[in-house]
Design goal:
CBS-domain, 6 helices, two-stranded antiparallel ribbon, alpha+beta, about 30% helix, globular, disordered N terminus
Length: about 200
């Protein structure tokens, strides 16, 4: 028998192909439990190699319904990231087929990463400062263990009740505003309480 006030388990998010996407949405944590990146990140991140083609990266994005893929080196360490926009702009500016363009020619140079045990506040501050919507989550060796996105922050705002200060609606809104400010415009003022 289910109690009246019990919270129903979250329904899995499904990709275009109907494959469940393992993101941690709808968690209920006991007051005082640690609130860190690992609690809300998507743990099934797909990666691509820097020497792979843009066609490979685009296929991963299509098959897994994502617009961001961490790029790894030959031993699996995250070295950069590539977005669906990066692929579109490379196809337009380089005038070549996706199979002919290596990921390394379109991906970012370097990656802003976070560890699974780091605080949500730190991850959010990194997103705000570097104006990125997603962060690869890496282990101590630099291997990809997940991705934390603005979507994960927004979908888990209910955790703010049990963890004062861990995830606040105002903070998520400030982060989104900073990320969304067009290049060349002044960034919105950020609270002086921003953690490093």
């Amino acid at each position: 028998m289910v109690a009246r006030n019990a919270i129903a388990p979250p329904q899995p998010v499904r990709t275009r192909l109907g494959v469940p996407k393992p993101c941690r949405v709808g968690l209920v944590l006991a007051a005082g439990a640690d609130m860190n990146v690992e609690r809300i990140m998507c743990s099934d991140a797909k990666t691509c190699r820097a020497d792979g083609s843009l066609n490979d990266a685009a296929r991963i994005m299509w098959e897994h319904d994502c617009g961001f893929v961490p790029v790894v080196d030959e031993i699996g360490r995250v070295v950069s990231v590539i977005t669906d926009r990066d692929i579109c702009m490379a196809a337009y500016t380089q005038g070549a087929r996706l199979e002919e363009i290596p990921v390394s020619r379109a991906a970012s140079h370097g990656a802003i990463t976070v560890l699974p045990g780091e605080s949500i506040e730190r991850a959010e501050a990194l997103m705000r400062r570097h104006r990125v919507r997603r962060l690869p989550v890496v282990n101590e060796a630099g291997g990809c263990v997940g991705v934390l996105s603005m979507n994960d922050l927004a979908r888990n705002l209910h955790l703010a009740r049990a963890h004062s200060g861990a995830l606040r609606p105002e903070s998520v809104a400030q982060t989104l505003a900073a990320i969304s400010t067009p290049r060349g415009e002044e960034r919105p003022a950020i609270s002086s309480r921003e953690p490093l």
